[in-house]
Amino acid sequence: MPGAPVAGWYDDPEFPGRARWWDGHRWAPAGVSPGAPGPGAGVPVPGPSAAPVRETSSYAGVMQNEEVKHQVDSVAGPIQRNYQSLIQQLRNQNAVGVVVAVNGQMVWADIFASTNLLERYWPKLVRSYAAEAVVTRTKDRAADIQQAQEFLNHLDGRHETVDSEPGLYRHTEIAGDGFRAFELTSLLPKTGFDLHVAKMAE
User: pLDDT above 90 covers what percent of the chain?
Assistant: First the structure.
């Protein structure tokens, strides 16, 4: 769409005071956090931070709020401090993705085409996961590998939207019961594989 704003978080046209993801072509459904961290993915931030957070629609703007930044830093900090050790463990296991649980509830998964892609995006992913942990309200319970595998296995949706640039990429958005997923597939010659699959619980 010529003249359309670039992808990013903007004021939600339907819900004033909240932010909504614009992918460069269309709005994400309200309350969805598609692969990019946002100010609560449409969830109001509680406490004294609420008013300042409502005044901005960008992740960068929200992260300028010291209380929100402190909350996200308190979650992301320990993971970032152990970055090299954790990346080495992931590399040693040839890991290409992660499944994220908050208080035992599966909330996010990111799967990449290679360990190198996971490693490259890891610092940004950690901040996204931390922001999600700050706004996710769940009861504390344990998570296990079986739950993570079930979360990954369930990608059948009710609705799919496909955006494609022939010969370059295909971006598929899948809306399912209690989740939203995004698949980015390379269509370059001799490829045709998923570069990144992201799944978020709703």
Answer: 17
